[in-house]
Amino acid sequence: MKNLMAKIINGKEIAARVRAELREEILSLKEKHGVTPGLSVVLVGDNPASRVYVRNKGKASEEVGIHSAQYDLPESTSEKELLDLVDRLNKDSSVSGILVQLPLPKHIDEEKVIEAILPSKDVDGFHPYNVGRLMIGAPTLQPCTPYGVMMLLDSTGVDLSGKNAVVVGRSNIVGKPMAMMLLKRNATVTICHSRTADLAEKIKSAEVLVAAIGKAKFVKGDWVREGAIVIDVGMNKDADGKLCGDVDFEGASERASFITPVPGGVGPMTIAMLLKNTVESARKAAGL
Ligand code: NDP
Known about the structure:
Blueprint lengths: L6 E2 L2 H23 L4 E7 L3 H17 L2 E7 L5 H13 L5 E4 L9 H7 L11 H8 L8 H12 L8 E5 L6 H10 L3 E5 L6 H6 L3 E4 L17 E4 L3 E2 L5 E2 L4 H5 L4 E2 L6 H20 L3
Parallel strand pairs: 1-11, 2-3, 2-4, 5-6, 5-7, 7-8, 8-11
Antiparallel strand pairs: 9-10
Helix pairs in contact: 1-10, 2-10, 6-7, 6-10
The site of NADPH dihydro-nicotinamide-adenine-dinucleotide phosphate has 25 residues, from α10.
């Protein structure tokens, strides 16, 4: 018997709900405690994609009532100048979260800059201190994209405990933290990457599949296990220049129980979780 078509996990709608809840929470933080969360976003150079991301982050912040400040630095900015700015923002009590947009120009050491951000203001969740806390399962600021994926998974109402979860991709911003978060929820996690042998076989065992590869429609529909939950993190262009994910959506949705579309799945969650992290930082800083 053919499986019914998968239910679509509507990331756009879930992200809008998160933002609406944050708007309420921020109002109450302001009224009851005089606290206004602040997000400082630093952009170095002129990468057009980064410019769009930064603009969207600023806009989304203002819409929920977060005070946002953007620092546009020229490509020629030295590492020292950037570190000095980070230091100033670390010391500024009106700044709850600091985000340095990656990638940075080649002459600047990204690791050094990330490590210079106060862990309590690291709303991207990239500082080794926060990564370490995630690893040991302690509460921490979590990287926005996998954090958003967890919320999408929770929206299905499916208990992850004991499920076979396969994460394809092992980047520090998506794959690795994703695996840790699934592990914390008692899934049995397999991490796959470009050297994985028999990737299709691994994927066929997945009751929960998270694809974070960066290759258009790489995961074929018939690799997807019947009834699997499929989360597609990929943001790629297909042959016609249209935005698409890492998974062949049409094929996969004939077998999956739940699936995220691209666009409108994981993408909108990333910024929503950045806002959530900023509010959490502001709360903590105010001792709330
Ligand atoms: P990276 O390029 O850093 O990582 C890609 C991962 O995929 C690597 O671990 C790589 O393996 C693995 N991989 C590459 N080719 C294959 C293959 N043939 N078989 C199996 N694994 C493979 O990308 P990111 O993690 O930063 O991003 C992944 C995707 O998610 C991209 O499309 C990106 O645009 C998107 N993205 C979307 C976000 C959103 O908000 N929706 C946020 C962040 C990313 P190896 O380590 O061996 O090289």
